[in-house]
């Protein structure tokens, strides 16, 4: 089974040519490049899936047998030189001269981030820039290649960027181009059903090949109704213990992937503990400590202001910031509770309230510091990771 692209199958001159750094100097792009999938599109994708499967969630997808090979197809973009990648992306995107995103090294501790993901990642991706700005950071706009459902998975984006398997010779190397030609500090991924270690190892290998000293972050999503059989008919069945058990099942899936990657590459891969955050949020709700939240799951209880809004498991309204706080706390090792400036988060009719927002900040830090796979330790309880 292929654990990563076998770059050694290419000639050494070709390999070394991709290390060309001159493009970094002549292709600086100062434009904002966060590209979010439109919420309406993601909503439609979720709705179509629910309708097609009568409410159930599809979890099995075709995987090209090429993933079992010793190497990716020779025409994979990951084997090209940096200038070849630029030419390929200019052609596929029909853009000239601005296909590379590059940022100067921040002086305020901000991170230069690239990432993939699907609709479960979008709440955090959309609120993280607002949170970092309020924290006094001038974080460059993350460069993202995202999509709804499986189209935002790490495997799908690797195939799409490289023009292999289902995208044979139709590459869209949006991230590969910028990774090969600029410096980055972190890469973020959203998880997907039946993930394998190699779906992430290929990205790490490519980043290492281009001399990137990066950290990598994998969200573990959160509990989903279809983990339960039968699906509960009442929210009373969604006890703290049930939700915690569902979280443990998620961790049993993604934990081994992170451990295997760290064993291979050194401790550079961490969890974004969004699942743990939702477990804690459920506990807060049951204690009456989430002001304004009316229910746990709209698909069961029917309340609009619930923690989850549909059977697939998308977050309910107002919870976007909770995921953003988890992202911020993990990436920067600081508690969102320390942010003094106002954060211009979206609110509707005063919801979420300031009190609920404070609860979300507390939950995020508790989730991050209580999860050993986040890499954040705060033994002195000052709201700042001990190694920062």
UniProtKB/TrEMBL annotation:
Q: Does the keyword Signal apply?
A: yes
Q: Which Gene3D superfamilies match?
A: SGNH hydrolase (3.40.50.1110)
User: Any signal peptide, and if so, which residues?
Assistant: 1-37
Query: Mind listing the UniProt keywords for this protein, alphabetically?
Result: Signal
Q: Which GO terms describe its molecular function?
A: hydrolase activity, acting on ester bonds
The record ties this protein, via InterPro entries, to:
SGNH_hydro_sf
Q: What is this protein called?
A: Uncharacterized protein
Highest taxon above the source species? Bacteria
């Amino acid at each position: 089974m292929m654990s990563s692209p076998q770059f050694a199958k290419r000639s050494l001159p070709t390999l070394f040519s991709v290390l060309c750094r001159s493009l970094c100097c002549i292709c600086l792009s100062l434009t904002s490049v966060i590209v979010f999938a439109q919420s309406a599109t993601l909503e439609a994708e979720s709705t179509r899936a629910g309708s097609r499967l009568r409410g159930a969630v599809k979890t099995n997808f075709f995987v090209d047998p090429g993933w079992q090979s010793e190497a990716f197809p020779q025409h994979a973009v990951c084997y090209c030189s940096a200038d070849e990648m630029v030419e390929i992306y200019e052609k596929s995107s029909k853009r000239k001269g601005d296909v590379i995103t590059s940022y100067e090294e921040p002086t305020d501790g901000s991170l230069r981030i690239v990432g993939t993901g699907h609709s479960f990642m979008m709440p955090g991706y959309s609120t993280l820039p607002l949170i970092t700005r309020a924290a006094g950071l001038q974080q460059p706009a993350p460069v993202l290649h995202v999509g709804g459902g499986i189209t935002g998975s790490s495997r799908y984006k690797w195939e799409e960027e490289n023009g292999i398997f289902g995208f044979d010779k139709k590459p869209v190397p949006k991230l590969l181009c910028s990774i090969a030609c600029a410096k980055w500090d972190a890469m973020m991924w959203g998880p997907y059903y039946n993930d394998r270690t190699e779906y992430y190892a290929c990205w790490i290998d490519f980043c290492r090949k281009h001399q990137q000293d990066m950290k990598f972050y994998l969200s573990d999503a959160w509990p989903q109704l279809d983990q339960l059989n039968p699906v509960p008919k009442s929210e009373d069945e969604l006890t703290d213990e049930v939700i915690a058990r569902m979280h443990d099942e998620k961790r049993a899936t993604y934990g081994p992937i992170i451990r295997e990657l760290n064993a291979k590459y050194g401790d550079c891969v961490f969890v974004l503990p969004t699942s743990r955050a939702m477990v804690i949020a459920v506990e807060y709700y049951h204690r009456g400590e989430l002001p304004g939240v009316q229910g746990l799951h709209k698909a069961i209880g029917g309340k609009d202001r619930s923690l989850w809004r549909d059977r697939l498991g998308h977050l309910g309204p107002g919870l976007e910031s909770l995921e953003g706080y988890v992202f911020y706390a993990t990436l920067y090792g600081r508690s969102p509770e320390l942010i003094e400036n106002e954060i211009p988060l979206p609110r509707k009719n005063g919801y979420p309230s300031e009190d609920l927002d404070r609860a979300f900040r507390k939950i995020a830090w508790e989730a991050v510091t209580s999860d050993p796979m986040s890499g954040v330790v705060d033994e002195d309880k000052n709201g700042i990771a001990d190694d920062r």
